[in-house]
Design brief:
By secondary structure, the chain is mainly α. It contains five helices and no strands. Helices cover about 80% and strands about 0% of the residues. Pfam families: DoxX_2. Its main location: membrane.
């Protein structure tokens, strides 16, 4: 199960680091063409979401890899789960069911990591 959790952490980390860098660095016009919801959210909030996703992605891997402050991994998973719940709310208001489904999958993965790393498979 530990290997399975590491695989989930790696996949989640890769997705959120990439998404975070995109949201934190790309111009607003380019983001709107790729992520239509950005048009409804102020630019500083989009940047904050990007930084939070980037930090959460790093938090999935680095604490366990270096065996330093390993409690940060399940906390990062919790933070990413919260971001996904909020994202699902935004997409529900915008009537975007496919985006809600994708966010739900990421939420489930984050919840499995939270369960495993807070519980029986903590570092």
């Amino acid at each position: 199960m530990n290997v399975f959790l590491w695989i989930l952490q790696g996949v989640l980390a890769a997705m959120f680091v990439a998404a975070g860098v995109l949201k934190a660095t790309q111009p607003r016009d380019k983001l709107i063409s790729q992520l239509p919801w950005v048009s409804d959210v102020p630019t500083p909030v989009v940047r904050l979401i990007g930084v939070a996703e980037f930090a959460g992605g790093l938090g999935m891997i680095l604490p366990g890899a270096f065996d330093i402050a390993t409690v940060l991994t399940p906390l990062a998973a919790t933070g990413l789960a919260v971001i996904m719940v909020l994202a699902m709310g935004l997409h529900a208001r915008r009537k975007e069911p496919q985006a809600i489904g994708f966010n739900a999958i990421l939420l489930i993965v984050a919840a499995v990591i939270m369960w495993g790393r807070f519980g029986p498979y903590s570092f």
